[in-house]
Design brief:
Structural class: alpha/beta
Strand content: 15-25%
Number of strands: 17
Oligomer: single chain
Helix content: 40-55%
Mean pLDDT: 96
Distance between the termini: 34 Å
CATH superfamily of the largest domain: Enolase-like C-terminal domain
CATH topology of the largest domain: TIM Barrel
CATH class of the largest domain: Alpha Beta
CATH architecture of the largest domain: Alpha-Beta Barrel
Number of helices: 14
Length: 382
């Protein structure tokens, strides 16, 4: 029997079991907290799904409340158990129907995302391929931008963090703004002084501003500090406000949103509303890799670039399959969490993440002894 036949037999096997775990990692911000324009938090929770078939295990995850873990167990585990591991998109469709009455957006989409990623990882492992080679990839690397710069950081910590990314060869960095808008000028001035004129500076208001207020700061950010990216200056639900900022803001300052889009229709609304200059998608929220592939087609059809929101260990593979790829948010909290829980995470090389062609699937293995101290859901594997 040929290798191709052997692989075909392996991937057609049925899914044996699904297990769900959740881990909560305290932040390392001042007084144990981090802040952005609209939220303060003291921990990050990862919901981790493992799917078993044919002697292999695929893993996927999302970042959300621990309730997403119970959602996976109560609504999705039985749906995929006993079905073929060969067809992640078909199982994605079945899971979408299953969560219809329980709430498809929000926690439902996060739960589907985690399982979908695990199914793709499982299929790639069964085929003994890195996930990037299983997907219809356009790229072999994903450019990144350093992201953190929380509003409660001191100026020293802010400049050390963003300056550190530039020293690593990352040519673009982002800070949180707009919690206290009057403090942003000194923060941006300190960042510019620390990193110089060449690296790109991005800002993220997390929906903290009103329309006219955001328009004022859009011009100020660009004119005084050459800011090129203004993410969620107003709420991502305010499509008219986003469109107004895109049309009336500086020509070289892009308006971005999409990280809270959970369904394909959410992305359609942003695109048809001409609300953004660059679209964002979070693979751990938008329906996983299958949902992302739909969104990638939408962005290409409308001539919009697509930027990856966070979850770098998955996004580095998944967004290679995005034709209109812009870049990936290399987010401090997620980089820290994934480095703690997984062997096989990637580090930026020349300002980009490059999936390892020598490791199957996502290339990740769980460091169980390190993870257990942060467990808040599920039981350790035997």
């Amino acid at each position: 029997m040929s290798t191709a036949d052997t692989r075909g037999d392996a991937v057609s096997c049925e899914i044996d079991s699904v297990e769900v775990h959740a881990f909560e990692l305290p932040t390392d911000g001042p007084d144990g907290k981090e802040q952005d324009g609209t939220l303060e938090w003291d921990s990050t929770t990862m919901v981790l799904v493992r799917v078993h078939a044919g002697g292999r295990t695929g893993l996927g995850y999302t970042y959300g409340d621990v309730s997403v873990a119970s959602f996976v167990e109560s609504k999705l585990a039985d749906v995929v158990r006993g079905r073929s591991a060969a067809w992640p998109p078909a199982l994605w469709e079945v899971m979408g129907r299953q969560v219809r009455n329980s709430g498809r957006p929000g926690a439902g989409a996060m739960a589907v995302s985690a399982v979908d990623v695990a199914l793709w990882d499982l299929k790639a492992r069964l085929l003994e391929l890195p996930l990037v080679r299983l997907l219809p990839s356009w790229h072999d690397r994903v450019p990144v931008y350093g992201s953190g710069g929380f509003t409660n950081y001191s100026l020293d910590r802010l400049t050390d963090q963003l300056g550190g990314w530039v020293e690593q060869g990352i040519p673009r960095v982002k800070l949180k703004t707009s919690r206290d808008p009057e403090s942003d000028p000194r923060r941006l001035a300190a960042v510019r002084e620390a990193i110089g004129d060449e690296p790109e500076v991005f800002t993220d208001a997390n929906g903290a501003l009103g329309r006219k207020q955001a328009l004022y700061w859009a011009h100020r950010f660009h004119e005084d500090w050459d800011v090129r990216w203004f993410e969620e200056p107003v709420s991502s639900a305010d499509l008219e406000g986003l469109r107004m900022l895109s049309e009336r803001g500086p020509a070289r300052l892009e308006i971005a949103a999409g990280e809270y889009a959970y369904t394909t229709q959410d992305f359609v609304n942003l695109v048809q509303g001409r609300a953004v200059d660059c679209l964002q998608a979070d693979v751990s929220r938008c329906g996983g890799i299958t949902g992302l592939l739909e969104t990638a087609g939408l962005s290409a059809a409308h001539h919009l670039d697509l930027s990856a929101h966070c979850a770098p260990a998955v996004s580095a593979h998944a967004f290679c399959a995005v034709r209109r790829l812009r870049h990936l948010e290399y987010f401090h909290d997620h980089v820290r969490f994934e480095g703690l829980l997984f062997d096989g995470t990637l580090s930026p090389d020349g300002g980009a993440l490059r999936p390892d062609p020598g490791r199957p699937g996502l290339g990740l293995e769980i460091k169980w002894p390190d993870a257990e101290r942060y467990r808040v859901y599920g039981t350790p594997p035997t």
